[in-house]
Amino acid sequence: MAAPAPKQEELQPHAVRDQLPAVSYCLTSPPPWPEAILLGFQHYLVMLGTTVIIPTALVPQMGGGNEEKARVIQTLLFVAGINTLIQTFLGTRLPAVIGGSYTFVAPTISIILAGRYSGIADPHEKFLRIMRGTQGALIVASTLQIILGFSGLWRIVVRLLSPLSAAPLVALVGFGLYELGFPSVAKCIEIGLPQILLLVALSQYIPHLLPLVGTAFERFAVIMSIVVVWLYAFFLTVGGAYKNAAPKTQFHCRTDRSGLVGGAPWISVPYPFQWGAPTFDAGEAFAMMAASFVALVESTGAFIAVSRYASATPCPPSIMSRGIGWQGVGILLGGLFGTANGSSVSVENAGLLGLTRVGSRRVVQISAGFMIFFSVLGKFGAVFASIPGPIIAAIYCLLFAYVVPQYFNEYTSVAGFGPVHTHARWFNDMINVVFSSKAFVGGAVAYFLDNTLHRRDGTVRKDRGHHFWDRFRSFKTDPRSEEFYSLPFNLNKFFPSF
User: Fold this and answer.
1) How far is residue 27's CA from residue 361's CA, in Å, rounded to a whole number?
2) pLDDT, average across residues 348-376
């Protein structure tokens, strides 16, 4: 009689690790200076997308022209650099880029459509009045994150967050912007599609085909692909490929249609109240506060992703709360300088950390230096900011997938207003903004179910992964927290973490 077949070993899941393996440079281990500078410049190029797209969409509706658009982009870039330095030095100390946020677009458009601005005939005067209105709303909205963050109230919320409820929050922070990726690529498919294919080839295939030099291609795939496709788009432009194309096609495909280089000053330093004194309206402030709360939730998910990609231990709740407080200060700076937009953690730059496997804090601080430098030297910064949108959108399609409450967005696109449509515009904006955020809705539902369904059952608690984060609930429980999250210059003595 033949011997029985050997019993197949039962498959076991991979062991959960405190830190992500196979990361070349973690949070506290910077790469050599030449490589760090190139990687920092790459982060700068990636964050330019939202920095350019948001003002390009909002400023013309506000009444501004190319000159105003260039100055708003310059201001947004300058404030983003300051906020990124603040976050990496005093906030969570994670390599998180703080940039413009799509979450604040809806309340800004609501301010643009406010009746008190409709009678202004002069476009420039209309732009200034609307800009001052957004400044006042942002200044008020910033207090929400400042209070929740620095008071430690947000720490209480984060303590109840488990890996099970964090997973949809982190995923939907990226998935929530899906509709902004491929549709933008399709606006000029002849340069958007080559960008996707080249970036995939350089980052995923070349490293395996050429192992000796593959690391360089993997680490600098974004810079290489942008240079090649940008040159390709330039030759199409000068060669007359779009000479008889429709105006929209020329705007998205040509490399000389942004109007940013001509409108940008050679040297200019943004300063607070450069557009005039802010104006305040209670309804607009409430709508912007709703957006601020949504950005707070989205940034919490992004901070979790960044800590993982940087190969740091899970961020202690007190550190997360500290980071949210400083992000509130960042929104305040946006209101003071006049960016027409609030700020949050840049998800695309978090994706770049995963792509390059470099989670160094120094690299992101260098990128902040590029933001400030090119915002002051306006003409030079405008050259990079004039990269055609489909190229940037193609990068976003790979760095994060831009889709869950799609009902709110589709309802708005068809009806012209959100599902909540009362006579109180500020109330409509508050509800519609909150429930239009995929990350907020997905994260809130997961958080509620995770903390209400059988939460005292030991088996369920283990399935939630809560036990894995238990030892990171306090700053002093794990000795590695001091290495990753302690403040520089012995500031922990004055601002202790718990």
Assistant:
1) 5
2) 92
